[in-house]
């Protein structure tokens, strides 16, 4: 294995580690860091690792650095980190790296946040730290933290639309409260975990009384909960007042004050159609049951052909008794 492939392998490892705390790092992206020593081996020996803490307050570099003493750092010690180390006045990752004596850092991506962009790299270079930007695997980290990138690049949250439908295309079953299986509902709780906010339309709230929270064992996360409605106020929920004549930017401004980087919109069909028909989304998840609905109404039927004609099928797979299709623009 060449040295270049070794570096690439470690960068891929920090990308994989970055998945570890997705959805649990507050307002910060989920980042990972490895500190590797090459004193005794061309393949390197991992001295320490770190991930962004579950509340986001401690960055991955700090988590990794605090586990090793200064006398372990040599001129053959290398840091690998999935995102550019932050630099700001006062305490920050870039200053801690310099203070610790690390002289070589491989990063996978510059920070898209304009308050940080290239500042960490500039500070490290100014302090004689060699920086290597491994762009070849940049796509993977951008995919892991797509909500963070969309928020800073496009100045809006990443919007995921979700719809549960029967085998024959209905979104409501008058005989059963749930279209899809418990396994698929568990799958969607993992999606709730990765999003900052969850929203449904007023009719879905009235008919289904959803809790709009993430119910996974051992996970304690409070998602922002929104109802999309023309009503003035709804107890216990934040309100996005939807008016089809208003610009989508009005909704984004409402979410901006909460610093929401991602929102999962779970329906119903009218709400889904509003965002879909106006192209206000980044991703669509269709959870389709193997069972047909026998008692419903035509207004609750959705035609998947519209998706297949206009969008790319990003992923498709069976899940329990159901099938998951994920579309992107």
H/E order of the elements? HEEHEHEHEHHEHEHEEHEHEHEE
Give the biggest sheet: 8 strands, mixed
Strand order of the largest sheet: 9-8-7-10-6-11-13-12
Low-confidence stretches: none
Structural class computed from helices and strand pairing = alpha/beta
Describe this structure in words.
- The protein is an alpha/beta fold and 329 residues long.
- It is 30% helix and 23% strand.
- It is built from 11 helices and 13 strands.
- The protein has helices at 3-18, 60-65, 93-100, 119-126, 138-144, 146-154, 182-194, 202-208, 248-256, 269-277, 305-310; strands spanning 32-37, 45-51, 77-81, 104-107, 130-133, 158-165, 197-201, 224-229, 238-241, 262-265, 283-289, 312-319, 322-328.
- The strands form 2 sheets. Strands 9-8-7-10-6-11-13-12 form an 8-stranded mixed sheet, sandwiched between helices.
- Strand 1 and strand 2 (45-51) form a beta hairpin.
- Helix 3 runs parallel beside helix 4 and helix 5 packs across helix 6 (146-154).
- The longest helix has 16 residues, at 3-18.
- The radius of gyration is 23 Å and the shape is elongated.
- The chain starts with a helix and ends with a strand.
């Amino acid at each position: 294995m060449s040295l270049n492939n070794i570096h690439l392998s470690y960068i891929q490892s920090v990308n994989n580690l970055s998945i570890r705390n997705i959805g649990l790092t507050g307002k910060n992206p989920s980042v990972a860091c490895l500190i590797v020593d090459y004193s005794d081996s061309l393949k390197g020996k991992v001295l320490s690792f770190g991930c962004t803490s579950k509340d986001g307050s401690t960055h991955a570099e700090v988590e990794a650095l605090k586990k090793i003493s200064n006398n372990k750092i040599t001129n053959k010690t290398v840091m690998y980190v999935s995102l550019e180390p932050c630099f700001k006045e006062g305490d920050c990752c870039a200053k801690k790296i310099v203070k610790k004596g690390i002289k070589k850092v491989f990063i996978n991506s510059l920070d898209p946040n304009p308050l940080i962009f290239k500042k960490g790299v500039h500070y490290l270079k100014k302090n004689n730290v060699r920086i290597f930007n491994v762009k070849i695997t940049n796509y993977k980290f951008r995919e892991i933290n797509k909500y963070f990138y969309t928020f800073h690049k496009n100045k809006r949250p990443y919007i995921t639309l979700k719809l549960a439908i029967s085998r024959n295309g209905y979104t409501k079953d008058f005989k059963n409260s749930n279209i899809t299986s418990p396994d698929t509902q568990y799958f969607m709780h993992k999606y709730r975990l990765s999003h900052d906010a969850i929203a449904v339309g007023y009719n879905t709230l009235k008919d289904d009384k959803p809790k709009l929270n993430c119910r996974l064992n051992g996970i304690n996360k409070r998602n922002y909960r929104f109802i999309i409605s023309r009503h003035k106020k709804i107890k216990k929920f934040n309100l996005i007042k939807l008016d089809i004549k208003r610009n989508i930017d009005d909704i984004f401004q409402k979410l901006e004050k909460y610093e929401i980087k991602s929102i999962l919109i779970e329906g119903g069909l009218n709400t889904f159609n509003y965002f879909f028909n106006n192209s206000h989304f980044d991703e669509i998840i269709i959870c389709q049951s193997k069972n047909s609905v026998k008692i419903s109404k035509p207004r609750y039927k959705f035609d998947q052909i519209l998706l297949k004609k206009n969008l790319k099928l990003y992923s498709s797979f069976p899940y329990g008794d159901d099938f998951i299709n994920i579309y992107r623009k």
